[in-house]
Design brief:
- By secondary structure, the protein is α+β, with helices and mostly antiparallel strands.
- It is 20% helix and 47% strand.
- Strands 1, 2, 3, 4, 5, 6 and 7 form a 7-stranded antiparallel beta sheet that branches.
- A hairpin with a 3-residue loop joins β2 and β3.
């Protein structure tokens, strides 16, 4: 079982089979867990801040809002972008019609 400190594995999962990436946990203040059911990898994202599309910083309120969405309807919060160059991951919540742009500090992938 290996741990890789790179966003490359999450980006590859997103590129090849985005529909099998499932949001599993959002823990305050800065942790997001994503599981890929296709390759059975667990991706752990450490978040610096949550930024709305208007580039207005939300800080802790943004992460709290993201956590509430993930708890109310976890199946509907999906990854819509992974950018390892800009260290960012974007999630969209279909029922709330919100987009959460996560400024990422680190991405770890745990291989089962």
């Amino acid at each position: 079982m290996g741990v890789f400190k790179s966003g490359a594995f999450l980006q590859q999962c997103f590129s090849v089979h985005p529909l099998t990436l499932n949001l599993k946990v959002v823990t305050l203040p800065d942790l997001v867990g994503v599981f890929c059911t296709n390759c059975r990898m667990k991706h752990r994202v450490t978040v610096q801040r949550v930024v709305p599309l208007e580039n207005e910083e939300l800080g802790k309120e943004g992460m709290l809002s993201f956590q509430e969405c993930s708890q109310q309807h976890p199946e509907d919060v999906r990854i819509s972008l992974v950018d390892v160059v800009k260290n960012s991951v974007e999630f969209r919540c279909r029922p709330c019609r919100r987009t959460y742009f996560l400024d990422v500090e680190m991405i770890e992938t745990h291989q089962s």
